[in-house]
Write a structure and sequence with these properties.
The protein is an alpha+beta fold. It contains four helices and four strands. It has a four-stranded antiparallel β-sheet with strand order 2-3-1-4.
């Protein structure tokens, strides 16, 4: 049985770290430290929960790449088509004359999405890739 209600606990940290955290609390517009800490805990739980291979997740893969890289566009397309059941949509942006940003919306088993992300981000010509996921269950 799950307990509900707020529980109070203490946290100790170095002064310089607390000052930086307070700056973040203010910058992000949290009402207080507790709200910010709850958000950090939720985020950590989300990140941990999708590490279970069979967990059903949804999210995005961001890729920044040089579109002049030989065969890169063909490889990106081939990999996405090979896992078409996990790719819901893609959006392609031209950032400058050489650089593109592609956002790929995904869902499926965490292990499959992680594999897709690894294949895409490891391609020659991909300068940066970022996978962001959340489980499709309430925390």
């Amino acid at each position: 049985m799950e307990e509900s209600g707020l529980k109070r606990f203490g946290i100790s940290m170095e002064g310089h770290l607390l000052r930086r955290f307070d700056g973040l609390v203010t910058q992000k517009g949290y009402a207080n430290r507790s709200e910010a800490i709850r958000d950090l805990v939720r985020d950590a739980l989300v990140q941990h929960s999708w590490e279970k291979d069979e967990q059903i997740v949804a999210g995005s893969i961001l890729l920044f790449y040089n579109h002049h890289q030989r065969n890169l566009m063909e490889e990106l397309t081939r990999i996405q088509h090979s896992m078409h059941d996990n790719v819901l949509a893609t959006t392609h942006f031209h950032l400058d004359k050489d650089t593109c940003l592609e956002m790929i919306i995904v869902n499926g088993k965490a292990k499959d999405i992680q594999q897709l992300s690894n294949q895409l981000t490891s391609l020659r010509g991909v300068d940066y890739g970022r996978l962001t996921l959340a489980p499709l269950e309430k925390l």
